[in-house]
Amino acid sequence: MTSKTLEDFLEAGIRELKEQGLFNEVDPLESPNGPQITLNGKEMINLSSNNYLGLATDERLKAKAIQAIETDGVGAGAVRSINGTLQLHLRLEEKLAAFKHTEAALAYQSGFNANVAAIPAVMDRNDAILSDELNHASIIDGCRLSRAKIIPYKHSDMDDLREKAKEATEQYGKVMVITDGVFSMDGDVAKLPEIVEIAEAFDLITYVDDAHGSGVLGEGAGTVKHFNLSDRIDMQMGTLSKAIGVVGGYVAGRQSLIEWLKVRSRPFLFSTSLTPGDVAATIEALDILTTSKDLQTRLWENARYFQEGLRAIGFDTGKTETPITPCIIGDEKETQQFSQRLMEEGIYAKSIVFPTVPRGTGRVRNMPIAAHTRDMLDEALAKYKTIGKELNVI
Ligand code: PMP
């Protein structure tokens, strides 16, 4: 048998993906990622960013980042556990703990890194992890790295979780239940009160990835706070790249957990820490979020307005409970065509189809953000209506 070369492997793989229409190529933006963007010379209304509060281009954050670069430089120079810990990092972690209503918090270089850091730091091959089947890819990778037995449960199905929790606790050492706080494809919220009850009945470790809930639910503090469960969830993970508008991730919880992560989580130990500019901008974002609810109010007003507008035209927005707004078209080809037509008409809203979501549930996913004006949303709704009629989907 002759072994395949890398070139053979890549060529065959790319060809196959292209044949299946799954080879994603992206054009770079010619503008910042704000409520409007410029792409291929064309100005478009942007309904595809996670910049929920519009902070990614906020002048106050930019000023703090520039100031920190002037005083502390562009890089932290080392990993946290050698000498890449600046005063700024500690200030950020104090703010994060206060924001999440926990004893302590630890910052990572991204939300993805936070998950692949924290899960394997506490779980090992003798353990089991009960994981919602729709959990984010970084949770799945974190679980795999831990070598624990991964037991998926049906999406938000509490009977399935209870049954699997009972079985797992009889067979394994530690057992964790892990869930997204807000699910990014449908915008539905995890049933945290029931999850906590099951966890307490079976002594499970509780872990919530609140990438899409922080800054959005619970008056900004996230899904756990929304349900008033701050002292009953063991590990709260979040990202600094969505509502916060910058980059980075974190885990918040008890002091002992954070102490352990500092000595046992590999991205903390072996990957250079967040840059001073990013940290300073993040601290400013947290200050804004905790002192004023204006941006959240605007986000929710825009989200409700856009969702009601879509439903009034005759579209199905699924089971969203958050600003994440799926517009469900169904058929994969029609969905892609719909998104393509929106793009041609100056509305940037991406289609999401199988295998990312189940077959026959293709949708255009929209993220109305605080920085959209009513005029922008009205224009997008008008285009939805015209194209919906043109393609016979309403
Ligand atoms: N968890 C969830 C649920 C997410 O949606 C994302 C971002 N797509 C992440 C984690 C990763 O966060 P980051 O982009 O900061 O790496």
Automatic annotation (TrEMBL):
GO molecular function, one term: transferase activity
Keyword Membrane: no
Domain of life of the source: Bacteria
Record-annotated Aminotransferase class I/classII large domain positions: 43-382
UniProt cross-references to PROSITE patterns, sorted A to Z: AA_TRANSFER_CLASS_2 (PS00599)
Essential cofactor(s): pyridoxal 5'-phosphate
Keywords from the named record: Pyridoxal phosphate, Transferase
Chaperone found in the keyword field: no
Pfam families associated with the record: Aminotran_1_2
Subunit: Homodimer.
Assigned protein family: Belongs to the class-II pyridoxal-phosphate-dependent aminotransferase family.
Descriptive protein name: Glycine C-acetyltransferase
Organism: Natribacillus halophilus
